[in-house]
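Handout, page 2. Input:
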Amino acid sequence: MHVTIKDVAKLAGVSPSTVSRVIADNPKISDATKKNVYKAMDELNYHPNAIARSLANKSTKILGLILPSTEEDIFKNPFFIQVMTGVSHYAQKNGYYILYTYATSEDEELEHLKKLMFSRWVDGIILTTIRKDDKCIQYLKENQYPFVVVGKPESTDGILWVDNDNFHAMYTVVNQLIQKGHRKIGFIGGPHVLNVTMNRLDGYLRAIENSGIQVDEKLIMRKEFTEEGGYEAMKHILAYDHPSAIVTTDDLIAFGALKALREEEIDDISVIGFNNTPLAAYQHPTLSSVDINAEKLGSFAARLLIKHLEKKDDGINSYIIDTKLVERESSEKKK
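Output:
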């Protein structure tokens, strides 16, 4: 059955003209009405592709960047600052500007995305987080709206994306630790719904298994990408055992793990971070960390999207950005 704007209006209990104004993000329409109309559109699987295409043809020279946190929390994680810097530098060189928005959940991210899509504010969207069965990617694809993703989607068909080889990066780190004599290595990652966590966990598991070491599930913890999450996970692991090394999927997690070790006065556990944020060199002890070139990730994401918007596609839909382990004091410990 072909769903029309009248069907949406009937389900939402508003007039068709109100639905049109919601799609155009008319400021005179209340947030409650907009939410109600968006809900009706979702229930009826209504996608105003014609409107989306007409809006896309009216260039604003602005890119929408969606960040997965509150405005306050974003500035606690240097990764997003570095990505934003890379995006901004490339965009401005090419005559584009950035509109930032923040979301604390996937549903809120989808709501913001819809507002950007059906407004005249942006020409395309940059997503900085990918989840399993990601709703935002699905919605953007269904509506044929220009976007790029920082991270590798589960299905890359028809999607612009830029990422590191997270599997290989973590595999290399764990393998190096094993070669140094470590046999009991723990893992602290972010939420399991995030693709980056699963890719790095897969690299950890493969390195452990290929070395003939038994995987201990109790040494594997997944928390939020925060210092508090790393602290809690490290405390939990220490209550169970005393590993010789811990690999993490983010420097903030590693900072929390180091804090827990300092409290327990433990100095014989190596900790490895990811992102090589500036504060890694100022930890006590200093933190070894994988440099993922976050600013370059942002720059190449903007590059892919702008080339697509300007119809200068050259057949390249993705970029893999190199990583490098920056070794400092903590990785030199031996079991």
